[in-house]
Amino acid sequence: MTADRDKPWLAHYPPSLTADLVPEHSDALQMFRAGVARAPDQVVASYFGGEVTMRQLDAQSDALACAFVAAGIQRGDRVAAYLQNVPQFLLTMVAAWKAEAIMVSINPMSRERELEKLLTDSGSVVLVCLEELYDVVRGVVGRTDVRLVVTTSALEHRGRDDDRLFAGMVRARHEGTTDLAGLVEQYAGQQPAPVEFAPEEVALLTYTSGTTGASKGAMNTHGNVCFSAQVIRDWCGLRPGDVVLGVAPLFHITGLIAGIAVCFLLPAELVLGYRFDVEVLLDAIRERRPTFTVAAITVFIAIANLPGVTREDLASLRSTYSGGAPVTPAWAERFQQQFGIRIHSMYGLTETTSPSHAVPFGAQAPVDPVSGALAVGVPVPSTVSRIVGDDGQPLPPREVGEIVISGPQVVPGYWDKPEESAHALPGGELHTGDVGFMDEQGWFYVVDRKKDLINASGYKVWPREVEDVLCEHPAVSEAAVVGVPDEYRGETVKAFVTLRPGAAAGEGELIAHCRERLSAYKYPRSIEFLDVLPKTVTGKVLRRELADTEGGQP
Fold first, then answer.
1. Three-state secondary structure call for residue 479
2. Of the N and C termini of the chain, which has fewer Cβ atoms inside 10 Å?
């Protein structure tokens, strides 16, 4: 069964949401320039009290682009950003485009082996990195194609100090590198040659998280970026002058689109905080009064568990979305009761340039009465999503199968990997590897990743269902479920749990809680309590890391 714009199940939504989306821009640089022309004095980035306007970002990116061109950067070359959530990330992105290059976003948590692999795979010739990360760069860059290393510091652009993040941090210029601020000053007032991009040209290389295999560079095109930015604006109820809380990492597709790109489109202020710290985040919310954010559910859990936070603290958040990791109905309800804020779900992948499915702003996502899962949304405009079986044939409503997606946000493939592109994107339709189902009204539900399926005595157990039940217990903060070897059953279910601050619960109590609510083959036979669950930087729990340890023991 196909869920597309011609189906009647979205008839109760405004036509602006159900109609095909006509992109206002086909070129991400053109989108930025239109924002500059519309509101040149709009603050586009705020950072610990410091502010950068659209006009300033335009002038600074002109200068940096000229520096890139002077260094020999040509059309289609790759410029890598190895940065935290700092204003220089936006500067690097726009300058790369103005120099006719492709920007490569790299996780700042990457270590030497990972960094070398990403720089080599992308063929990056410029690396813009934080001085604080240069010890990782030092031993790698000589083994890659990088010929210009530009450094900057998290201490720049601040309006004030914050000892919680910057204590002991000092400026440190490194031999063989070039200072970013120095380049901007050197080329100030110069402008690069005019450039335009076709919608199918690559704007960004964003690397998949690698939670189920080797990381691959998704080729997010200019058309992908412009379409997805407009989806965020229109479906999340945003308007010019909104304030966007940039809690999602900027290197990740969520931060790139629901943070940077949508702020270029509106234009709007993006509140940056270097890296995630829940107390720093709360201070930023109190000071800048953001109206919109997309964050992993773990961020909302951290806020809810922070002593002293009040409804008034979060009252400015008009539109609040969660993506990157599943939202349990129990946590969504807890957050709404505590703060009066509805968390809207959003679903997408690196390969869909952020959202492919979302809950339209103001709508209430249903909870499936059978599985207890919270719907992740419906396909966004101009997008077709299907549920298919192992034979590739469409399945009827409520039948569980693989989620496949086609639409203007789907990438054309992976960088320099034609075979993997053909396998994951046959005919341009993305086979996500995520398992889910669609109900009769067209709402989609994500069950799990295919590779996380547990086979207990021949019965299928999806970890997500067990995790949701565990999170219904008032003492449980987060849960991760994996299959561990079992002599009798082949595999059996084991849970890893973190508890809410001040709460207490024993293994027997939680097993009994699950046993009352799940089939006999589904409930966990053992539970281990952890202080934190291992996660990616975007909040996805690393079940594989738990399962790969001997016997499931960390």
1. strand
2. C
Cα dist. 413→18, 216, 477 in Å?
Answer: 27, 10, 37
H/E run at residue 496: strand 490-499
Query: Could you state, in order of their start, the residue ranges of all structural domains in the chain?
Result: 2-438, 453-552
- Same CATH fold assignment for domains 2-438 and 453-552: no
Q: What is the dihedral of CA 298, 300, 306, 309, to 10 degrees?
A: 170
Quick one: tokens of 321?
Answer: 């979305």
Which helix or strand (DSSP H or E) is residue 43 part of? strand 43-47
Prior bond of 485 cis (ω within 30°): no
Q: How wide is the angle at C-alpha 315 spanned by C-alphas 314 and 319, nearest 5°?
A: 90
For residue 533, the tally of other CB atoms under 10 A from its CB is: 19
Q: Does domain 453-552 correspond to CATH entry 3.30.300.30?
A: yes
pLDDT confidence of 337, banded at 50, 70, 90? very high
Q: What is the pTM of this model?
A: 0.85
Phi-psi group of 518: left, alpha or beta (phi > 0 → left; psi -120 to 50 → alpha; rest → beta) = beta
Please, what CATH class does the domain formed by 2-438 belong to? alpha beta
Q: What is the pLDDT of residues 139-173, one digit of tens each?
A: 899 999 999 999 999 999 999 888 899 988 999 88
